[in-house]
Structures are given as structure tokens and as C-alpha cells.
Amino acid sequence: MYSAAAAAASPPRRDFISVTLSPEEAVGAGGYNNSKAWRRRSCWRKWKQLSRLQRSVILFLFAFLAVCGVISYTSVGEPWKSLTNKSLDDQRTEPGIPGLKLANPAVLPAPQKADANLGDYPELSPQKLPKPPRVRRGPSNLQIKPPRRDVRLKTRHGTSRVVEEPVQADKEEKTEKSVISWRGAVIEPDQSTEPPSIKIKEPEKPSSVEDVDQKEPVPINERQRAVIEAFRHAWKGYKDFAWGHDELKPLSKSYSEWFGLGLTLIDALDTMWILGLKEEFEEARKWVANDLVFDKNVDVNLFESTIRILGGLLSTYHLSGDSLFLEKAKEIGNRLMPAFKTPSKIPYSDVNIGRGTAHPPRWTSDSTVAEVTSIQLEFRELSRLTGDEKFQKAVDEVMKHVHTLSGKNDGLVPMFINTNSGQFTHLGVYTLGARADSYYEYLLKQWIQGGKKENELLEDYMRAIEGVKKHLLKRSQPKKLTFVGELAHGHFSAKMDHLVCFLPGTLALGAHNGLTADHMKLAEALIETCYQMYAQVETGLSPEIVHFNLHAQKGHKDVEIKPADRHNLLRPETVESLFYMYRFTGDKKYQDWGWEILQNFNKYTRVPTGGYTSINNVQNPSNPEPRDKMESFFLGETLKYMYLLFSDDIDLINLDKYVFNTEAHPLPIWAPA
Ligand code: DMJ
């Protein structure tokens, strides 16, 4: 306790300041008064009681402290700020975890080189760094149109839902930010992209609208010109003999119908846009505007019409900004929805888009696993564009369900799933070819599309690739080519579909997005194999299926072809993977391999009167036995990937901005809100 009496008795001192606080003094005669006015008066009185020297010292001290404060704020603040940023950067780039690198840094980074430890695949050449980007925006002679947003596309799920469910929103945010682990590895979600939640608030603009920053156009080269010539030749056949129909029959100068929806024309729309074929694009647009009718009593395959028609319309909308394509995409999307009305919510394979009914194939109630798990990129994007969550909800449910199913073998899935029980059927057979292929592709691509936050997708993808390595990967003789075989009830078969050649591209895309560099090594080994599936054959074109020799035999190549498998349908998978490999490594050999393939397509499948044809026999150069059919994916995929492979412009469908659906239709990676 301080004493007022003792303070009063002290002799006045000049060289120090004494401040004595006493409740009694403070209370005084009037009792305790803590009013502001009283406190102000009391302080003033005390101040007045100080000597001039004391007051000067106090004022000087205050002034000194104020100057120090200002200096330290400006000089100390900056280092602290950069120190904080630096430690965050360190956290992002430090791998420290076997098996997985950290995800990309924020905001669409440049292609990154994966580690070039080729120990496991000795015959591979090291990766080269990608060339510095020479940039071109869109097709040389087309303008990116401003968006024509449809005023009817008003959101049904505005901010009100977020406000109504604050606790839920908070919970979700925490989940999104969480770090996931896969076999001890840690992956941070990409900070730059929007969460893939189906809480959709606003319909989105086409990606081309954000994409119009002016950059020097990159001139096209000889090989790209050759692709344009090939496309024009194919288009001429289609236009002359099959206009508005599904597929050209170039030899009989007629057409075949599958769904009766102008499949080739729609599949080819965005290829024309990318190749800069303005006239052809405008003609095709007119047909879409005036003649494309979905109100037809016709059964369509859900998967095929999703990847080719819905995917093609959505990507064309994004590239052109023309709302006609979004309107058509919405219509076909809605008409496909009855497929999901099944007891298990695993969709039926077929939908009657006129009647609004759906059914499985006549002989079974099963659907194909690849089909029900490779429609997600398109339906999710349709939800994002329209603000209508039902599309995404339906396909997300399928993925979530498949994620939980038993019957997988180290992440590898069977080929069939029952639409009643929701369970896998025909257990024990595992392939990366027909009926399972794009399941694996879409695990990775959905993860990329949604901003690398949907952990289950990534976990399933990583586990599956481990499953491939463990059960399906072998080496052939004599060249020791790494290939992906099949497993049937414990028995390995050295059979590989050409369809499997999507895998090197997908693995490379994963590595580019921060997954383990080991995937890139496997991609390099597999693309070599896919190339050999062309190079070791008499026409230089791959058959539909090959069998690899596991034991060296005199006079035998690595690749054996059975008579029933020696057809070529103008498929894209190898060229697709060559494109990814060139984009990510800059190694020109991939362009050269693609160039060889294009020349062989020209030599053995080109029909003089217009169009290209599938062939029956890749082993007979003097008579490859034309089949008289040009598949829509030749224009939708094969020639598009050729053109992109030969381009040195990484901004021509930038892989940090777009993800290709399984029919080569680029859809935007969801951008920050
Ligand atoms: C295309 O329709 C798609 O690429 C699909 O994923 C597989 N089959 C053909 C091309 O071969």
C-alpha cells in the first residue's frame, strides 16, 4: 500500500519523478470518484506539480519513443513479411515424402520437369526441358467472341444457401484445406482453384472470355499444315457424302447412323476451331443451330453421347463463347438424366432421349465400369456452367459409390457393375483396355478439374497405378518393352489393347500436376512401347490388340498380332500420349513419331474421293482391306492431337488451364472464384 503521508514528508527532489498513487488521496473528501473529468483534472494537477526539467525529460522521452516506433515499423515489418512468405514457400516445395511431390504451386504454373532418375527403365532417354513458350491465342484466323450470356441462366443456388448453412460451410472449408495422405505421402490442395463442392452459386462464363490477353500469334509449321490438309480432306468426304449424319462411309460414298445426331460434325467442332478453319466451323455451326434436334425417339449410349456430344458442345462453347453450344449442351444433358434413375443410381447404358426412358442392354442389367465413371468431367462442367447442381450430384454419387466398393484388386476395377445391386460383377478380370480404361483416366482428370482437392479421387488413382505396376506390368522380348497386360482370375495375359496407350499421356499429366516422378518414367517407357506397336508392323500402323512375347525366340519381334486383332480404327490414344509427352518434355522424337504415324495414315487409310477409312489388316501394305468407315473420333481426337503435338505453342490449349475429356474435348480447369 502506498502512503500519502510518507509522500508528503519527503523532501522535494529534482532529479527523479515520483508518482504516488493513493486511493485515499484519490477519494479525498468527496469519496471515490472515477469520472473521466476527475481523472483528467488530477493528471493535469500532477503534471503542473512537476518541475520544468521533469516535464522536459518526459516530453523528450515520449518524442524519442515515437520516432523509434515509426522507424522500426518500416524497417522491421518487411523482413518479417518476407520471412513468413519464404517459410510458406519452403513448405510448398519441400518434397520430403517418398512417392509424391507436392502439388503445383498456386496459379497455373509452367510445365515442370519430373526427376529424371531412369533407373527402373534403362532404355529411356532423359527428359528435356520444354521449350520456352511461344504463345498464340486461339485459331489464327478466328476471333474469340465475347460471351453471349443467356439471361435465363440465373442461379438457383445463390449465396442464400451458404448463409442458411454456416456450420456446414465451415466444415466443408476445413475439409478442403485438409492435407491428405496416401501411403505416408502428403499432398496439399491447390490454393488457386475453386473447391469442387456442388454448392454452385453462379453460372460461369466461357473460359475463352478470360483467355483473350493479346500475345504474338505463333505461326503454324509445315507439319501442322499437313494436319489441316488431312482434316480438310476428311471433312470434304463427310460434307459431300454424310453431311449431318453420324459417320462417313468413304468408299461407298454414304454414311452410317448410330444415334442420328450428326456425331462426326459435333465431335469435330472444336477441332475446326483449334485448327483455325473458320469457314468449315461456320457451316457446321449453322447445322447445329438449324438442324440438330434432340427430341427424337432414339436410344443413345449414355457414355458415347456424353463424351462426344455433350463434351464437344461444352468445349466448343468455351472456345468460341457462343451460347448456342451451351444451350444445346444443356438440352442433351437434361435428356440424358433419366439414365440415373436406377435402384443403385449407377446409370443404365442406354437412354431414349425423346421418350425420357432408360434401360440396360437387352442381355444384362450390368453397365460397363469405364462408361459409368467417364461421364463426370462433362456433367460436372455442365453444373458449373448452368448453376444447376443435379448433373454433378448424379455423377459424383457414382464416383463416391465406386470408391467404396469391394472387388477391387489393389485399386484395379472389374469391367462390369450391376445397376440394381450397385456391385461389381464378373469379378477377377482386370485390364486397362476396353471397359475399364477411362475409369483410371477420369480419376486423375476429375481431380485436376476440381482443383486437386477431391482426395478420394487421387487416392483411387494412385492406388490403381500401384496395382498396374504390381499386377499388369511386364517386359517383352527381345527389346524389353514395358507393357500393360491383363489379369484373369490370377492368370497374366500378355495382351494389350491399343486403347491402353492413353495411359502414358495420363501418367505424364499426373506427374506434371505434382505426382511422383516415377509416373513420368513409366510414361516414357510405355509411350516407347505404343510407338513400337506401330513401328514393328508392316504398314507402320498399330493393330487394335497386340500380344507381347515374354520369351526371346529367334526371328520373333516383341509384338505378335492375331488375325482377329489386326484392324486399325484410326484411333487416337498413341497420338494423344505423344502430345502430352512432347508438351511436358520438349523431346522432338515424339513429334517425329507422330509425323511417321500421320504419313502412314495418309498412305494406307486415305480415300482419294474424300475421307479416311478404318482398315482390316495392318500387316498387308499392298492390301490393308479398307473397312469403309471413318469414326468420328478421327476428326474429334486423332487429328486434333496430331495438330497439338506438332505445335510449339504451349498456350494452344494450355494444360494448366484445360483438361481434355476422353474424347479430346478440352474443358476448363475450374478457376478461382
Ligand atoms: C473414343 O471414343 C474415346 O477416346 C474413348 O475413351 C475410347 N474410344 C474412342 C477412341 O479410341
TrEMBL record:
Residues 162-177, 199-214 have a biased composition (Basic and acidic residues). Pathway: Protein modification; protein glycosylation. It comes from the Eukaryota. Its cofactor is Ca(2+). It catalyses: N(4)-(alpha-D-Man-(1->2)-alpha-D-Man-(1->2)-alpha-D-Man-(1->3)-[alpha-D-Man-(1->2)-alpha-D-Man-(1->3)-[alpha-D-Man-(1->2)-alpha-D-Man-(1->6)]-alpha-D-Man-(1->6)]-beta-D-Man-(1->4)-beta-D-GlcNAc-(1->4)-beta-D-GlcNAc)-L-asparaginyl-[protein] (N-glucan mannose isomer 9A1,2,3B1,2,3) + 4 H2O = N(4)-(alpha-D-Man-(1->3)-[alpha-D-Man-(1->3)-[alpha-D-Man-(1->6)]-alpha-D-Man-(1->6)]-beta-D-Man-(1->4)-beta-D-GlcNAc-(1->4)-beta-D-GlcNAc)-L-asparaginyl-[protein] (N-glucan mannose isomer 5A1,2) + 4 beta-D-mannose; N(4)-(alpha-D-Man-(1->2)-alpha-D-Man-(1->2)-alpha-D-Man-(1->3)-[alpha-D-Man-(1->3)-[alpha-D-Man-(1->2)-alpha-D-Man-(1->6)]-alpha-D-Man-(1->6)]-beta-D-Man-(1->4)-beta-D-GlcNAc-(1->4)-beta-D-GlcNAc)-L-asparaginyl-[protein] (N-glucan mannose isomer 8A1,2,3B1,3) + 3 H2O = N(4)-(alpha-D-Man-(1->3)-[alpha-D-Man-(1->3)-[alpha-D-Man-(1->6)]-alpha-D-Man-(1->6)]-beta-D-Man-(1->4)-beta-D-GlcNAc-(1->4)-beta-D-GlcNAc)-L-asparaginyl-[protein] (N-glucan mannose isomer 5A1,2) + 3 beta-D-mannose. Its EC number is 3.2.1.-. One of its GO terms (biological process) is carbohydrate metabolic process. Ca(2+) binds at residue 662. Belongs to the glycosyl hydrolase 47 family. This is alpha-1,2-Mannosidase. It comes from Phaetusa simplex. The lineage of its organism: Eukaryota, Metazoa, Chordata, Craniata, Vertebrata. The gene is Man1b1.
